[in-house]
Amino acid sequence: MDQYRDFAFIYDELMNEVDYNGWVKYIEDIIKNENAKVQNILELACGTGNLTIPLTKKNYDIAGIDISEEMLSVAREKAEKEGVELVLLQQDIAQLDFDITNLDCVLCACDGFNYITYDDDLENVFTKTYELLKEDGVFIFDISSFYKLSTILGNNMYGENRDDIAYMWQNYFDDEENLVEMELAFFIKDEFEKFERFEEVHQQRAYTEDEILDMLKSSGFKNIKVYGDFTFEAPKQDSQRIFFVCKK
Ligand SMILES: C[S@@+](CC[C@H](N)C(=O)[O-])C[C@H]1O[C@@H](n2cnc3c(N)ncnc32)[C@H](O)[C@@H]1O
């Protein structure tokens, strides 16, 4: 499936309203709350480095993994511009293969795990993560909630018409497989003021909190906290982003 190919080059522009500085602060607050000593971080599904780069600037040693070479190429270009050195690897996290163990922290932000659509694959990522972490290491990730994927994105259509980018985004929710298929059509203005069209189909799996908790427990994690929407409170029925914080 073609995901995050051409889209990679406009991803940051379309995400320009996301408060990544606030996201970094929330991650650091979680680390503080957990009394975790974190120097190194493995970031899964790091994309264009929107968290990788600011976290590196805060002196964490980070390696980022993503399946999309195009997303990584944008991350590399941004890092070079900002004079930041990053270790970036192209890999499918469903077959996570990382040499360094005893990690302080593994991170996956902005619904990277919703792209892992099979239970076995996601449980495999959790098990590998458990093996890679040091004793007391911390695993921090978020998912788009079942509510968001089934009801808000659901079978709805979205669109935006900016000066140089327009898109149409049609979703289909399969309530047997709990999968949302997103058909995205983008129109990008070129140097001749003509709009070029490209399309991508993305698929995300809606997981319930209980499904994720069961998989984490089967992978060995015991001390698991669940928070809703950048708070330190339990998710509400209409929370859109669910954060999981687990210690080995
Ligand atoms: C919504 S983006 C999030 C990117 C980044 N974490 C951020 O906060 O901006 C989801 C990312 O997951 C990556 N991804 C999806 N499936 C993946 C897989 N199987 N293995 C590794 N990365 C994957 C995509 O390439 C994309 O970069």
Task: List the keywords.
7-stranded mixed beta sheet; single chain; 29% helix; 11 strands; Rossmann fold; 248 residues; globular; binds S-adenosylmethionine; 33% strand; alpha/beta; 4-stranded antiparallel beta sheet; N-terminal domain of TfIIb
Please render the helix and strand layout as text.
Blueprint: H1 8-14, H2 20-33, E1 40-44, H3 52-57, E2 61-66, H4 69-81, E3 87-90, E4 103-108, H5 119-132, E5 133-144, H6 146-153, E6 157-161, E7 165-174, E8 179-189, E9 195-205, H7 209-218, E10 223-228, E11 241-247
Pfam family, one: Methyltransf_25
InterPro entries: Methyltransf_25, SAM-dependent_MTases_sf
GO molecular function, one term: methyltransferase activity
- Global Rg: 18 Å
Category by helix and strand content: alpha/beta
Secondary-structure element order, N to C = HHEHEHEEHEHEEEEHEE
Number of helices: 7
Q: Strands across the major sheet, in which order?
A: 3-2-1-4-5-11-10
Mean pLDDT, nearest integer?
Answer: 96
Cα separation of the termini: 34 Å
Classified by CATH, the class of the largest domain is: Alpha Beta
Q: Specify the overall morphology.
A: globular
Number-wise, the strands total: 11
Which kinds of small molecule does this entry bind, naming each only once? S-adenosylmethionine
